[in-house]
From TrEMBL:
Biased amino acid composition, Polar residues: 202-211
Protein's name according to its UniProt entry: Large ribosomal subunit protein bL25
Lineage: Bacteria, Bacillati, Bacillota, Bacilli, Bacillales
Native organism: Lysinibacillus sphaericus
Region described as Disordered: spans on this chain: 183-211
Biological-process GO terms, alphabetical: translation
Domain named Large ribosomal subunit protein bL25 beta: residues: 100-181
Superkingdom assignment: Bacteria
Alphabetized UniProt keyword annotations: Ribonucleoprotein, Ribosomal protein, RNA-binding, rRNA-binding
One Pfam family, short name: Ribosomal_L25p
Positions of the Large ribosomal subunit protein bL25 L25 domain: 5-91
HAMAP family listed in its UniProt record: Ribosomal_bL25_CTC
Cellular component aspect of the GO annotation: cytosolic large ribosomal subunit
Functional note: This is one of the proteins that binds to the 5S RNA in the ribosome where it forms part of the central protuberance.
Length: 211
């Protein structure tokens, strides 16, 4: 999917200039890559936020830089550490006929058998690197964890054949692991039948008569 974003060329300035630009409702950025020199741009902040909320960050964008159409992917988004708003964006122009290497987030679907049995699901790695045509870049990669039991894991080698694109990670790249419940939880769940015997310091059972 190609989404058009209008952009304006800008001259590189000092920090105060960028601050004024942001205060006016714009986001500074840069676009570089295929068949172009690095170009400083600015985007409307509201429109950029709207597009991200609708289609996410993995789509191919068509930048309209003062009439020049550029196919690009979003390479980096810098955010304010305190308020979370976007401070700067980097776009990479691409050749639509060539495959790209991109990192795609993993989305877990289904309820694992191991979780039903009391285990805990862990995701050691939350992204997969793939090689794919720009027009076919997925927003997420869904993996079914239904059959993952306690003490077992799901690896890239287990899911590679499920997708038409090439997964660049090794077969032993771990996606999901189900760990057993902790020993404390197991002990809390255990019950003891009857009344426990009371043993004195001498080691004798108080329930038996003394000689």
């Amino acid at each position: 999917m190609s989404t058009i974003l209008n952009a304006t060329k800008r001259h590189k300035g000092q920090g105060s200039t960028l601050t004024k630009l942001r205060q006016s409702g714009a986001i500074p950025g840069v676009v570089y890559g295929y068949q172009m020199e690095p170009t400083s741009i600015s985007l409307d902040a509201r429109m950029f936020a709207k597009v991200l909320s609708e289609i996410g960050s993995k789509s191919v964008f068509q930048l309209d830089v003062e009439g020049k159409k550029i196919n690009a992917v979003l390479n980096e988004v810098q955010r304010c550490a305190l308020k979370g708003h976007v401070k700067h964006v980097d776009f990479k122009s691409i050749n639509m006929s060539e495959e790209l290497e991109v990192d795609i987030p993993v989305s877990v679907v289904g309820e694992a058998i191991g979780v039903k049995d009391g285990g805990f699901l862990l995701q050691p790695n939350r992204d997969i690197r793939i090689k794919v045509q720009p027009s076919e870049i997925p927003e997420t990669i869904e993996i079914d964890v239904t059959n993952v039991a306690i003490g077992t894991s799901l690896y890239v080698g287990d899911i590679r054949q499920n997708y038409h694109f090439e997964i660049l990670n090794e077969d032993d790249y771990t996606l999901v692991t189900i760990t057993p419940p902790s020993a404390e939880n197991v002990q809390e769940d255990e019950t003891v039948d009857g009344t426990p015997e009371v043993i004195e310091a001498t080691g004798q059972n108080t329930a038996e008569p003394r000689e």
